[in-house]
Amino acid sequence: MEIATVVVGGAWEVAATTVTSTGNLFAEHKLVLLWLIAGALIWTITEPLRKIGTRATLEGSHFVLKWGLLARLCLHRYCKYVRGPAVRGQPFRARMWKIYEAILATPMVVLEVKKMNGEGLGRLIYKWLDALHEYWCVFLPESWRFAWLTWKKYCRGSRMEAKRAAARALLCGRAGWTVISLGIYFAFYGILFSYECLEWACRGFQGVFVLVVTASYALASKQGETLNDIVRTNYLLLLVDGSILVVGVVSRLWRWYEATVGERSPVSMAKEGYAAWCSALEEQEQADRLREAFWRMDGGGDAPRTPVRTRSGLEAERRALRAKREVARTVGSRRGRRRLVGEDVPSRDGGQRLGSGAVCRDPRVDDVRSPGEVLDEETDGEDWWLK
User: What are residue 340's DSSP bridge partners?
Assistant: First the structure.
């Protein structure tokens, strides 16, 4: 009984000491304990908010890590393509163009391979890169190329048009010279014809001489004391007499020339001039037709232009070829109508027996494949552009 009393007393003393010590500890560090209690309460209350923040941090980290790895993959594929034989083995200009074009095309290819170009940020980046690629790699180069070709074309056309203008001026000069020469020849032959009529009426050159002398003697003026005065007074008469003499000499010489070389009448000259003018006019019309053909070719007028092969067009072509291959496999896997060829052995159409090792191709499947289809079969949907 005494032992139990001692044990109970010791336990009570220990409990009292513990409570006293705890109270003294709380009294001494009550501010710290209050802060700890408040922190525990706040931690418990803000647990839903902490979960949202943790989830947002994890999602942000996952987003940054995902697109960081994607950017690293793009850089790796770009360096692999640039250092590959498809670029290193090209001439300098082609190599620079491939390096430049791959800057925008590589992320597009990576997004397609990773199936990230269909929705969300990947679709936005893909469309943005596609628009930049179309603008910087298709539209601007083609525009500059067509502008340069147009500039060269117009320079050549300006030179051609200058030559055509000179040809037209020469043609007009030829026509004017023909008219002037015909006028001169008509005047010349008219004077010769008048003189020959006069000579024929006077029965020869002697008759003309007698007529001129007689007329001059009858019409000459006797005024004047010196010879100079007489010549000055009869200047017009002397001029007419001299002209008739010169025309007579020229007529004799022209007859001798025609008898030696051949007759060249104004009619023959007019025919020759008209023929030359018609030939020059036909050449001018031919040059005009060639000029119109020159301006129509290489994109002028309604001439068809070669369409630019864009990346979206290539992807559409690949999808069409892939669908065609699937149809070909489906058709090739079916058995056609079989018939008996002897000994009840079934055979395919065309007489090829089963098990003979011969390949039976369906005639509906096109046997002619384009290079794009061959490339698609070799790559089998892989990233062929960066290989």
Answer: 346
Q: Mind listing the pLDDT tens digit for each residue in 278-327? A: 777 777 777 777 767 766 665 544 444 555 555 566 677 777 888 888 88
**Range of 86's domain?**
2-143
Strand partners, 346: 340
327, 285: one domain: no
80, 112, 143 - which closes a domain: 143
The values of phi and psi at residue 306, to 5°, are -75, 120
User: Strand, helix or coil at 340?
Assistant: strand
Q: Using CB atoms within 10 A of its CB, is residue 81 exposed (0-12), middle (13-18) or buried (19+)? A: buried
Do 356 and 279 fall within a single domain?
Answer: no
Tokens representing 8?
A: 């109970």
CB 129 within 8 A of CB 102: no
Residues in Cβ contact with 260 at an 8 Å cutoff, skipping those fewer than 6 apart? none
Q: Quote the CA–CA distance of 108 and 123 in Å, as a whole number.
A: 10
- Rounded to whole angstroms, how far apart are CA atoms 137 and 101? 6
Question: By the 8 A CB rule, do 385 and 318 touch?
Answer: no
Q: Which long-range contacts (CB under 8 A, 24 or more apart) does 204-213 make?
A: 205/248, 205/252, 208/244, 208/248, 212/241, 212/244, 212/245
Which residue do the tokens 């430049």 mark? 100
DSSP 139: I
Reported pTM? 0.44
Q: Label residues 128-152 b or e (16+ Cβ within 10 Å = b).
A: ebbeebbeebeeeeeeeeeeeeeee
**Angle CA(91)–CA(94)–CA(97) in degrees, nearest 5?**
145
In one-letter notation, the amino acid at residue 144 is: W
In this structure, what token pair is assigned to residue 380? 């089998």
CA angle at 237 for the pair 232 and 238, rounded to the nearest 5°:
70
pLDDT score of 191? 83
CA neighbor of 140 nearest in space, from 97, 88, 106:
97
What value does the mean pLDDT take over residues 339-353? 45
In a domain, 304, yes or no: no
What is the C-alpha to C-alpha distance for residues 106 and 145, in angstroms, rounded to an integer?
A: 24
Q: How many domains does the chain have?
A: 3
| Owner of token pair 């670029």 | 87
Q: Cα–Cα distances in Å, from 300 out to 15, 111, 159? A: 110, 40, 18
